[in-house]
Design brief:
Elements lengths: L5 H11 L1 E5 L4 H13 L4 E5 L5 H15 L4 E5 L4 H9 L4 E4 L4 H10 L2 E6 L2 H9 L5 E3 L2 H13 L7 E3 L7 H10 L4 E3 L6 H6 L2 H19 L1
Helix pairs in contact: 2-3, 2-10, 4-5, 7-8, 8-10
Length: 222
């Protein structure tokens, strides 16, 4: 069961400005990645459940976060149907992220008042998602749309909260382009938690990198 309401999660997304995205089938490595992100200032993490038995890894990570990382909000990405969303919510997911807009997932999450963030690519999809109760839209793949797309959406719909994923990197120039366009927050995966960091198990380096990103974001939002 979720420990945070969808409003609390949406606010945490806005306050921190960035959500790390990560998947591994190695539980110990996953715990170390999660802890490194937490020590760098992350208070949300999207576990991109793309592998077999991913729910088992997520269950252990959530238990670990509850016990060892107070205030860490665990969510799940790459969810493609309502049954998977329900499973992850039973395992403690506080938010559900999907690659596409699906009404069945919206209904499942709304029943439990859990935040769900669907991947949308048109104003029509965005409007439909908001009619279904969506708080934060996922713009995916972000690099194909870019900051100008967000500016275009925010014109007629300034109330729309958007989280681009894909095409976001840790550089100040890139982050400035997104936050200047009016994003709610950004999602960052391999550009933040790189193959090199994983291969070298450079958890200390990851903590530094995460801290740097939040420092840049805080400056941009000031």
């Amino acid at each position: 069961m979720a420990q945070y309401t969808r409003i609390e999660v949406a606010q945490a997304m806005k306050d921190t400005g960035m959500i790390p995205l990560f998947f591994s089938d190695d539980i110990e490595l996953s715990k170390n990645i999660l802890k490194a992100c937490y020590e760098g200032g992350a208070r949300l993490l999207e576990f991109t459940a793309r592998g077999d038995f991913a729910h088992e890894i997520f269950a252990e990570l959530t238990k670990y976060a509850i016990k060892e990382l107070p205030g860490m909000i665990m969510g799940v990405g790459s969810v493609t149907d309502a049954s998977a969303a329900s499973l992850y919510m039973q395992l403690g997911a506080n938010f559900i992220v999907t690659p596409v807009l699906r009404e069945d997932i919206a209904i499942a999450c709304n029943r439990r008042k859990v935040l769900w963030s669907p991947g949308c690519g048109t104003l029509t999809e965005i409007t439909k998602a908001e009619e279904l109760g969506c708080e934060v839209i996922k713009l995916f793949p972000g690099d194909l749309y870019g900051p100008e797309f967000i500016k275009g959406i925010k014109g007629p719909q300034p109330w729309t909260s958007i989280m681009p994923t894909g095409g976001v990197n840790p550089s100040e120039e890139n982050l400035k382009s997104w936050f200047s366009a009016g994003v709610h927050c950004v999602g960052m995966g391999a550009q933040l938690i790189s193959k090199e960091i994983i291969a070298n198990k450079d958890y200390a380096g990851l903590t530094v990198k995460v801290k740097e990103v939040y420092t840049i974001i805080d400056k941009l939002k000031a």
